[in-house]
Amino acid sequence: MKKILAFAGSNSSTSINFQLLKHVANRIQGHEVKIQDLKQYDLPIYSADREKEKGMPIGATIINNIIKEHDALVIAVNEHNGNVSAYFKNIIDWLSRLDRNFLDGKKILLISTSPGKRGAASALEYTKGILPRFGGEVIESFSFPSFNDNFKDGEMLNEVLDMGIQDVLTTFSHQLEE
């Protein structure tokens, strides 16, 4: 049994990506899954001057330690104007300054959603490309389109998307055992 950390790259209290994350994380079988809300850790906007003057914020150290305690990650990637949110990018910036290989040895499942038909696909693709730079291995990814039409009250309404999520979870779980 592997320890999996699940978190969203959104700081919105009504995040649809966090809603999807909780649903997906609760479907993972045979592993210990911890859903973490990163909003509780204060991270100022990254600045080389701020880092030089004040060092690493304690929030970055805490998040880094939590990641190190887990074997794998499930990350829900949100999108703002066709890119990852400034909040999520800021987390990556601080963690990579603390430890360039902060994802070393971590197997990762990426999911994303948006109200639109592309399901935050641009932010998902960006994240798939950047996380390996920090040692992570993206095993699977899934873009969930038209969230408001396909998800309600914690449940998936679209059977095809539900089967797609299950296929991704099955592959991810199998890869964790290798």
Automatic annotation (TrEMBL):
GO cellular component: cytosol
Alphabetized GO MF terms: FMN binding; oxidoreductase activity
SUPFAM superfamilies to which the protein is assigned, alphabetical: Flavoproteins (SSF52218)
Organism superkingdom: Bacteria
Record InterPro entries: Flavoprotein-like_sf, FMN_Rdtase-like_dom, NAD(P)H-dep_reductase
Domain spans labelled NADPH-dependent FMN reductase-like: 3-143
PANTHER family recorded: CHROMATE REDUCTASE, NAD(P)H-DEPENDENT FMN REDUCTASE LOT6
Name assigned to this protein: NADPH-dependent FMN reductase
Species name: Salegentibacter salinarum
Upper taxonomic lineage: Bacteria, Pseudomonadati, Bacteroidota, Flavobacteriia, Flavobacteriales
